[in-house]
Amino acid sequence: MEVQKNLLVLGIESSCDETGVALVQSQGSGVPALLAHALHSQIEMHQAYGGVVPELASRDHIRRVLPLATQVLHDAGEPLAAVDVVAYTRGPGLAGALLVGAGVACALGAALGKPVLGVHHLEGHLLSPFLSADPPEFPFVALLVSGGHTQLMRVDGVGRYEILGETIDDAAGEAFDKSAKLMGLGYPGGPALSRLGEHGDATAFKLPRPLLHSGDLDFSFAGLKTAVLTQAKKLGDGLEQHKADLAASTEAAIVEVLVKKTLAALLQTGLRRVVVAGGVGANRRLRAQLNAACAQRQVRVHYPELHLCTDNGAMIAMAAAMRLQAGQQQANTDYAFDVKPRWPLDAITV
Ligand code: KG4
Ligand code: ZN
User: Is the CB of 221 under 6 A from ligand 1?
Assistant: First the structure.
């Protein structure tokens, strides 16, 4: 496909428990503009089960995706026929959930006679700070911290991703979610644990900082979860204040490892810019500590807008628009599609 100016890209996200749709317009060689976006979170539906139920997630995406698309087009004041490219999350994520977004995107593309583009979900997170009022410039170190992934990356441009380190077991978001569950808190655990810890003493419990001094940029959070389990059992139905202390101590352990490894990645690459992306990027302690550490070192830190830290359609439309600007050629025009529930980010290029 030829690179045109000012393409209208409709993006659809359905990889897990949020249905997101957005309309983005590319701006020549500038940062694409977000025209409208809409989101339906399934959190309430899954809360009763203490976690995401994949079959229910798929069924709910089916119900939500077209009404959300209609709303987005209405809000942007654009007819469906004006859409130039339909983008969708191709992976990684839940297979059935991904198939909903991919199927709808390809059906819309086929009906309109417009190309479709499958986007890597983590690339969406990674590029989501470009939707903020203070977009980054390449190159930068990216700390990608979501429910399923924890990676440090060197990013030299769209599709130019080098993984510097990643988790060898649980992701940071998983560490939050599992610790919260052990403490009897709801799903998703990250925000719940963080809220409980607000009035806690982060030094009350000595919890491990796994791989902090490993000399590489890998992470491990499984041992921390075991330590939290031991402490939670000891607490039993104990005082609320002790629970708040344990929540604060857990959050502090996770955040310290994330911040120190990010600083090590900056040292290793010699870069002076950091982008934080993924749901855990919404964490206040992480933001405060990373900001303080980076300010001392004259390093710039960029975050997505708070409401675009977790899954959304805007980041998928944005990633597709940036790929097209960067010269991506192979937009799908035969509408045969697949999804990639497992898909390493460094496997993709432009
Ligand atoms: O990026 P995301 O929406 O979904 C995935 O692609 O996985 O991230 C969801 C994760 C969950 O583990 C959730 O607990 C965590 O992000 N999270 C947080 C906060 N908000 C969301 N973790 C810590 N503090 C938060 N404020
Ligand atoms: Zn995500």
Answer: no
Alpha-carbon distance of 323 to 342, in angstroms, equals 21
Q: Does a structural domain hold residue 3?
A: no
Residues 166, 273: one domain?
yes
Ligand 1 centroid distance, CA of 145 (Å): 8
Give 73-108 pLDDT, tens digit per residue.
999 999 999 999 999 999 999 999 999 999 999 999
> Strands 8-13 and 85-91: what pairing?
parallel
Structure tokens at 99: 């198939």
Number of domains in the chain: 2
Q: Which domain holds residue 318?
A: 8-127+309-347
* Shortest-distance Cα residue to atom 3 of ligand 1: 310
Which atom number of ligand 1 is nearest to the Cα of residue 174? 12
CATH number reported for the structural domain that contains residue 236 in this entry: 3.30.420.40
pTM of the model: 0.95
Contact 115, 137 (CB under 8 A): no
In a domain, 2, yes or no: no
Pairwise pLDDT comparison (305 vs 331), residue with the higher score: 305
Q: Which structure tokens are listed for 250? A: 């857990």
Span from the CA of 100 to the centroid of ligand 1 (angstroms): 22
Dihedral angle at the C-alpha atoms of 257, 258, 260, 264, nearest 10 degrees? 130
58/194 same-domain check: no
Residue 4 pLDDT class (50, 70, 90 cuts): low
Q: How far apart are CA 143 and CA 10, in angstroms?
A: 27
Q: Which residues crowd ion ligand 2, with CB under 5 Å?
A: 146, 311
| Ligand 1 site, residue 103, Cβ cutoff 6 A | no
Nearest CA, atom 7, ligand 1: 147
